[in-house]
Amino acid sequence: MEKFSNRNALIHWISAIIIAFMFITGLISSDFDLKHKNANILQAHIFIGIFVLLISLIRVFTILKDQRPKELETVNKFHFLFKKLVQSLIYLLLIILPTSGLIIISNSPVDLEILESRPELLFSKEILDLIEIHEILVYSFLTLIVFHIAGIFLHMIRTKENILKRMWLQD
């Protein structure tokens, strides 16, 4: 079975772990309350988001540079197009999501001293709209990840082929 390069496999699994932490810190920081000092979680979410953006840009570069394994067989043309659409949208959102987070941060005060005295600055109408768009993108991304994982397991059930090995480190 043809595999992805070790570099792509490593970036894939590091991304998966980091994105899981990103989602957890996002859930916690969505209940942002200065009285409970969730500001550290928000800072972690921001830092991880920047890392996700950087590793995603590296990932796009390596996917374009490294040789990819042959496409897996699909049931029909619709299935193939759906698989490609899900993959493409995942890559697109891996860039757009952290970028939207940076836009939120760049348009709101991130200095915690300011927030402690004037927390309403973080929750202006414009910022709340940006946060809502960011959250919609997050849930869209999670839906795509569910489709991605379901597709992997459906393929494995249908073909009895362990395609997880394609995205694992080579010997």
Helical proportion, percent range:
over 70%
Largest sheet: none
Shape, per Cα inertia axes:
elongated
The overall strand count is 0
The proportion of residues in beta strands is under 5%
Number of helices: 5
Structural class: mainly alpha
Question: End-to-end distance, in Å?
Answer: 13 Å
If you compute it from the alpha carbons, what radius of gyration comes out, rounded to the nearest whole angstrom?
Answer: 19 Å
Task: Report on the architecture of this protein.
The chain is mostly helical. The protein is built from five helices and no strands. The chain has helices at residues 6-29, 39-65, 77-106, 112-117, 125-159. Helix 1 runs antiparallel to helix 2 (39-65), helix 2 packs across helix 3 and helix 3 packs antiparallel against helix 5 (125-159). It is elongated.
Describe this structure in a few short sentences.
This protein is an all-alpha fold and 171 residues long. It has helices spanning 6-29, 39-65, 77-106, 112-117, 125-159. The longest helix is centred in the last third of the chain and has 35 residues, at 125-159.
Q: Secondary structure elements and their pairing?
A:
Blueprint: H1 6-29, H2 39-65, H3 77-106, H4 112-117, H5 125-159
